[in-house]
Amino acid sequence: MHSIGNSLAPCSIKASHAPTRSIRPLLFAALLVLAPCAFAQSIQNPPIQQQMTPAQFKAAGLDKLNAEQLANLNAWLNGTIQAEASKAAVTAKKQVEDDNRGFLNFGSTEPVVGKIVGEFRGFGRGRSYTLENGHVWQQMDDASLAGVRLSNPQVKIIPSLIGNVWYMQVGSYNTRAKVLRVK
């Protein structure tokens, strides 16, 4: 998991600082998603002969296995369960990262590619842009793109190399606006 900093206290917004929100809900969500998977990996399932009734065990033909064969079957079943739990943990981690892209360097730093919902009328400080994936980004700088009117334009939001700063580019225009994810 990525390091989030020394403090779990809420951050306040300033010119280039993180949005006003506590990172505790993000950490809590990540723990809720990942904890069951980690717990599932840490325990061994009881042997198959304890999970089935004697009638089920016999009906499956497992009563014909010797002790070594039964041990191998149980080891394989436990390995499969642990492998599936690991896959679920990776999937859950990716989901948490994707859902939180743009918030406090928590989550993925891959570019966000999508479309603005509705009409785009150029850049302007303080404007909010809602993407089709539900993200809402607010412009934080004075970049402008005057005279532009586009319907549902393609956008690319790219993180800076340093800090939690993101830049939005609309369509094929070269102008980029500094944006902050607010939802």
Helix and strand topology:
Elements: H1 24-42, H2 48-51, H3 54-59, H4 67-99, E1 112-115, E2 119-120, E3 128-130, E4 136-139, E5 150-151, E6 154-159, E7 166-170, E8 176-181
Antiparallel strand pairs: 1-6, 2-5, 3-4, 4-8, 6-7, 7-8
Fill in the keyword field for this structure.
about 180 residues, alpha+beta, 2 domains
Overview of the structural elements:
This protein is α+β, with helices and mostly antiparallel strands and 183 residues long. The chain has 2 domains: 76 residues; 70 residues. The protein has a 6-stranded antiparallel β-sheet with strand order 1-6-7-8-4-3, with no helix packed on it. A two-stranded antiparallel ribbon has the order 2-5. Helix 1 runs antiparallel to helix 4. 13% of the residues are buried.
